[in-house]
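INFO  loader      accepted 1 record
INFO  loader      residues=276
INFO  predictor   begin
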Amino acid sequence: MTRQIMTTHPARSHRMRWRVSRTIKGLAGVLLLLTAWQISVPLIGLGSYFYPSPADVVAAVADLVRKGILPAYLADSLGRYLAGLTAGSLLGIAFGVLIGLNRTLSLALSPLFKFLFAIVEVAWIPIFVVWFGYGVKTILLALIYVVFFPLLYNTLLGVRTAPQVLVNAVRSLGASRLDVVRLVILPSALPTIITGLRVGAGFAFRGLVFAEIVAAKTGIGYLIFEGTQTQQTARTIVGMIVMGLLWLAMDQFYLRPIERATVQRWGLLIDAEQRT
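INFO  predictor   done
INFO  writer      dumping tokens
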């Protein structure tokens, strides 16, 4: 017991130092960027409409928070994003598993899936508006569409590449088809499914911005569009910064915990901290 504690403690200490070092370097980079931005404002000499300063952006944030606009828009965007990401992921994984288990169905539908995947959500949103009008329904459909195909493709790939030797071994022990899927195929496909989730989550962020510009009157995407239309460029930059911070928070508190609880826990993925 003592030996185990002595061997694991240095590893934890190393990870802690690595995280602190990474945080300090990241903050230093942000501070350097803000300093260069502030210095460049008087040098460039353009008005705040064309080139707002960090102080203008901070003032815009304070104004949006004071009026309750930013919290309300942020809540709307986050709710739409999570709903679309969840629904698209569940549908993509479910269809990927079902189709991947049937080789004939997989070969028949793969060309269709590739064709639909090539049609980005930007092309579908105007049609969704015609069919369903402006509002949440159109936004959710666009997000589900853009998340569905990366999850479908990666799940299908993971299922089709599951080690056949393991499948045969489990079957030889009397396992049912459901047991084979649960014990072999899904764990084997999990790394590619997580990859699809990351890709879909990133696509959904871009799709959210465009969908809210076209089909919404609230949300961070609409804030970006509204700021440009009303010549309040600082508000546009606020929206851009919020989108970036949202993605960082999503990656840190949603995607990474999923990785740690699944593929890293089962030894299928090596964390970046362990490679340094």
